[in-house]
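Postdoc handover notes: sequence design on the structure in folder B. Input tokens:
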């Protein structure tokens, strides 16, 4: 996946466990990518040769495409999947997931934000290592389906209420 994103120079990778975050960060550095890590331990920037960068804000480091040509944002979805804008990347990879679908949905939205290149689009990739990974994905998909059904029911209700109000106004004006 890193090789496929070299031209863009940015990739977002989510991993659901501290050990997975560390493993992914190591793989990225080994392949010549700098890493912005965000998990329960906080933010950390390391260059591809293992040097820790402390004199710059991690998100500024991420956004500086001129001076930092290849940067992987490696995060736990609960820590790095909320309230960040990472539209420089075209791909978000899920190395592993938790059973918490709200963190997955938020994490997916990090690259789908205002400012993204809509012509290039974005890709979400799930890597399945174990049978449990597939089961977690099934649970997340089912939760997403139920969420959409619920939102659809609310949407229908709001649309019907608005139509009823409109008809009531027409009757009152007649």
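Designed sequence:
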């Amino acid at each position: 996946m890193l090789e496929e994103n070299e031209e863009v120079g940015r990739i977002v990778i989510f991993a659901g466990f501290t050990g997975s975050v560390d493993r992914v960060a190591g793989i990225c550095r080994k392949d010549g990518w700098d890493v912005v890590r965000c998990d329960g331990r906080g933010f950390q920037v390391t260059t591809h040769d293992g040097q820790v960068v402390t004199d710059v804000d991690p998100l500024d480091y991420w956004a500086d495409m001129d001076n930092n040509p290849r940067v992987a944002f490696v995060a736990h979805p609960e820590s790095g999947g909320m309230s960040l804008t990472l539209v420089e990347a075209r791909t978000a990879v899920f190395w592993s997931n938790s059973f918490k679908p709200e963190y997955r949905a938020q994490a997916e939205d990090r690259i789908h934000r205002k400012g993204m290149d809509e012509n290039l689009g974005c890709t979400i990739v799930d890597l399945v290592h174990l049978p449990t990974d597939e089961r977690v994905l099934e649970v997340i998909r089912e939760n997403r389906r139920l969420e959409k059904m619920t939102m659809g029911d609310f949407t229908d209700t709001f649309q019907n209420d608005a139509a009823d109000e409109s008809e009531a106004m027409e009757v009152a004006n007649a």
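Context for whoever picks this up: Confidence is low (pLDDT under 50) at residues 164-174. Don't rerun without checking with the PI first.
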